[in-house]
Amino acid sequence: MSVEAVAAELREVRGPSALGGGWRRFFELLYLMSVTEFKRAYFGTVLGYVWSLVRPLMLFGVLLLVFTQVFRLGSQVPNYPVLLLFNLVLFTFFQESTAQAVTSVVSQESIVRKTQFPRLVIPMAPVMTSLFNFGMNMIAVLIFIFAFGVSPTWTWFLFPVIVLVLFVFTSAVSMLLSALYVRFRDVGIIWSVTSTALFYGTPVLYPFSIVPENLKDILFVNPLTPVFVQARRWIIDPSAPSAVAEAGAWTHLIAPIAIFVTACVLAVWVFNREAPRVAEEL
Amino acid sequence: MPRAEPAEAAPVVIEARDIDKTFRIPSHRIDSIKERAVHPLARAEYRELHALNQVSFDIHRGEFFGIVGRNGSGKSTLLKILASIYRADAGRISMAGRVAPFIELGVGFNPDLTARQNIVLNGVMMGLSQREARRRLHSVLEFGELEEFADLKLKNYSSGMMVRLAFSVMIQSDADILLIDEVLAVGDAAFQQKCADVLREMREGDRTIVLVTHDMASVQTYCHRAMLIDSGALSYIGDPEEVAQRYYRLNFARANGGSEQGNGLVPDVHARLAAARLENDAGEAIENVEVGDPIRLRIVIEAREELVQPVFSLQCLSAEGVQVFGLIRTLKLDRGEADRIAAGQQVRISGTIENPLTPGRYYISCWVARNRNPGDVAFQVINALDFVVFGQRKGPGVVEVRNEVEAVRETRSGE
Fold first, then answer.
1. Which end of chain B is more exposed for a tag (fewer CB within 10 A), N or C?
2. pTM of the prediction?
């Protein structure tokens, strides 16, 4: 027996944790899990990509009818159909990720209780899968953008900033919800109501400018609001007001930024605290 | 089987010191935010369960190490702590090298993915890089004899193929330390033989294996050293034979609800089970019995020391632990023979039993007492035989009895 040949050192084992096993292992596993899930959804079924577009496009069709024919919003807002589709695709990413992340730890119970790996992968895998879906959906949005004759601007290069901010917030909410759901099972119901409220409380269906003045401050507490306002200006309509302009003053951006930061800090803190015990709580 | 010397000289690869683990079992659980909001100050009430208490041990490189104990003794908890699935409340664990836990076969397999994808995913989950995981793809498929089915989705696998895949993934996992929990008895006879060969090979190899089990036969066959855990505390560590004996003794003391002290009632392991099998009418070993076919069994017990006036008992239990029937036999003696067995002598208990059992799983347990005294037990084997009665179920219950019951329309007599 070649004892000397392999002289790995004794290292202390500290039990399970959010990132147990290191960053490299975390990213490899996260990538593989989300890519296989994504591939399964896209190439596993006959219609694949088309099928995954049907849902957002149907929703888009219905909303477009309601808001252009019933509420007559379309005429006041330049390129309303493109804006609506773009906003829907952005919000779908947030909604889809968080909805799946809530139950993720519990539904993957068997691997959490029976094997060892960085726990953070579990809520992050649905976020990554939704991110890939989001990328595919953006292709459809791009086609619409050109079909409606929206001209490209240099601010399109700032799109990754929008995605990054949205991604960080989505991840934070997903981590937080997945950890809380293990202890409190009504988080699922509470979240489904909350995310519907957020859908109407974020300028997805309407441009922020038509919101009555007395409601603007309330809507601006929602960290998603400035993201959507800015996204519209950068991508669809350069003449639309920026987030700062809509907020009225820089100081009005403090609340959403504070909530954004709090959500991130809380998510990391709660998840790190719960990760080592999660296998026992299930 | 010759036992290779435990690798005492080899470096320590698992060092556990004073491991404590307590589970808090909530007696009243606050599991919704609503409840929390209604009773903001209510403290959840817990019952504490001390699963492990001050457990310390060292395991050396290349050792095949067994952890045994009764159900609920804490052995699986200990394995999960070693595997970093649970966190110990106190104490320190250090390990050297890559660890792969196998708490159950096929954990994390996704039925919607192909075998190929699952093998890679499993490898990465165990801490390999994607490239390393791909590299061992071939050897996993080869060991499981599943090359032709590499691109078949797991949901289309038969259960036998699934087991083979899961076991191959474990065998080929390439980790320095394997932590295995009771997953050895899998697959058909041919595959089991293959697994047994591999385990024997691994026993001689460089890898360190920790096996949790309550099958004393595999402890005695494979382990260099073993450890007995009782009620969360380390009770004995060392020679596997000794561990097995203590385990039986412990089981019996509990079964009698008795203390382990005095009065000669404490059984010792004075005999051992040499063989136990079911046979068909041609005398060949079989695993399972068809409904209605007589049960032909053959159990051989070897005395470790002289047994005077031995009594042999067999009990048949259903999967739920209900005793279906039992047999008690004394030694068949020719005129003038003494009612005793000498050390090393074997006794065969064999014959045919009518089979009224309905389809399901059954066990046959076996014990031997001395001096015609049911308390003076020489040894006891729980589940010496484990078999399935298969076929068409004709009615409810554990047994089907001969009967002449019929239902006929009654001729109406005046109201």
1. C
2. 0.73
